[in-house]
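Problem: given the chain below (302 residues), write out its structure.
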Amino acid sequence: MIPRFIFPLLLVSMCACGKDPLADAKKLERLGRYPSAIEAYEAHLSKKSQNSAEAAFRVAEIYRTVIRDYGRARLGYDSIAKNYSKTPWAGKAYTALINCPDYFPLNPEFVRRTGDSQSGGEYMQTEEEMQELSDPKGRFKVKRKIFAGQDLVSSYEKIYEKKDGRLEEFPLGAGAQSVILQYPIEKNRNWETVREGKKIFFRIESDDATVSIKAGKFDHCLKLRIQNSEDEKTWKVEYYAPDVGFILATVETDNGETRVSELISYLNKKSALNQPPLETAPSLWKKWTSRLKKKEKKGTDL
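Solution.
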């Protein structure tokens, strides 16, 4: 028999549940209970409340960032853009579409290293770091340092921004932006842009390429053909892996492809101990190795 004083507590608990279904769904998501969170969001969606657009967006985000079911995520974003076009969530959904999958992560936590394909980076390599700009918001500065062996020979910087379904590249200082990627990401999509004063033609040749390079094997890669309007006999091909970014560049003719440069290793600063670089590299990679050792000794964050 349940004591009488328990009943008021049960009633209070029952009344408290369900007062804010959207908040309950967000809590499940924070706890990592993603299937339950999706069910809770979809149950909230069925009621067609004023927060339905946000609930739909959260479901699409879980499919994109956690489950990585990009097909379902795209359907969700498309539905939001169509059915909630007058809400701020429609703009967020349209922006998210270019990250579904994300072939060019604008993530300052990533430190990347590419090198020449012939020697695996022994002859030439490039270290890349990214910084988010405060003004204007939404833009990221990428600094690339080029090494010949252990010697720094040059460096340059570019600005990138994802906006209106496009990835745009800006030179540092004066100059017009170039459109590097354009949504929808689908085979045979093409566009033209101006880069360093020259007209360039882009075409998506595949969104499901498999590529094996120094840094590993990558599936579902984007294969992008880039051709200078002044050269019809040769063109450049770049490959991008989901949630990693650029992984391989080749030069192609009618006779086939020749590898030029590729991703050697990449490092996420926040999970650096779980993603060590494949080799010891100059400059910041030596710095990171030192910092990782200190982290292991002290048990502190980087």
